[in-house]
Amino acid sequence: MSRRELREQIFKLLFRVEFNSLDEMSEQERMFFEEEDAAKGKDAYYISDKYHKIQQKLPEIDAQLNEKAEGWNTARMGKVDLTILRLAVYEIQYDDSVPTGVAINEAVELAKKFGQDASSGFVNGILAKFA
Length: 131
Prior knowledge:
By secondary structure, the chain is mainly alpha-helical. The protein is built from six helices and no strands. The chain has helices at 3-15, 25-35, 41-68, 79-94, 100-114, 119-128. Helix 1 (3-15) packs across helix 3. The longest helix has 28 residues, at 41-68. The chain is globular and about 40 Å long. The two termini are 27 Å apart. The model has no long low-confidence stretch (mean pLDDT 92).
């Protein structure tokens, strides 16, 4: 899989956090990999590893988002936009292998694909404050 495809799979898995308790996420992760036949071997390991790293940092990431997003907080954000922002903030703040510009661009592309009409602008505007 390409890095973009891997990022999209991580987004899909991370999105499940919004609908399940953290206790249920191990079962959700198992079901995710059963449903996503393309994620095998090293790709599945990469997706799972990055998902777990993001999940561990969610309280810190949400605090950073709440601090930077003037007039918004994570409780008010749409679930798709919030998941995209969480992934991008993790990459900007904690993943040295992803340049900030790439993280922002990829987040905007995810927002165009999965979000509403205004999602890409919203995501770009908040992430610009992290750059």
